[in-house]
Amino acid sequence: MTSNSQVFGKEAEVAAENTLRRQGYRILGRNLRFSNGELDIVAKKDETIVFVEVKARRTDQFGGASYAVTPKKQQRLIHLAAQYLAQHQLSQCLSRFDVIWYQHDAQQGGHLEHVVNAFEVPGDDLRW
Fold it and tell me: Which of 5, 11, 30, 128 could cross-link 82 (Cys pair, CB 3.0–4.6 Å)?
């Protein structure tokens, strides 16, 4: 059975993917599962591989996109991205991490915020 939060999360991912496509991104994968986590969206813009974390919220009471991905979550995403790059022999490609914050409520409808290069990768963390 699918919960309301799962449906809401899927709605956010579809909205994020559609927005990225309109902005000229090519989607390489969505909901890519690994043994230690999942990458929401992997896309390519020009020559850069972009790992996109989608965060869906019904309110902004916990902060916006800038608070959506904690340092612990960032480390997990960096590790997953390194795995993806290694598996696809893309380790030499430029890459970055974006966050798409999706908020939807009954009064205002859906609102999407795309934070490009949302966090930096320290040192050699993307090497696998």
Answer: 128
If phi over 0 gives left and psi between -120 and 50 gives alpha, with beta otherwise, what is residue 28?
Answer: alpha
Tell whether 123 is covered by a domain: no
24: left (phi over 0), alpha (psi -120 to 50) or beta: left
Q: Is the residue at 126 inside a domain?
A: no
- Average of pLDDT values for 10-38? 93
What pTM did the predictor assign? Answer: 0.85
Angle made by CA atoms 50, 60, 11, in degrees to the nearest 5: 55
Q: Which amino acid is at 22?
A: R
Range of the domain at 30: 4-115
Rounded Cα distance, 82 and 76, in Å: 10
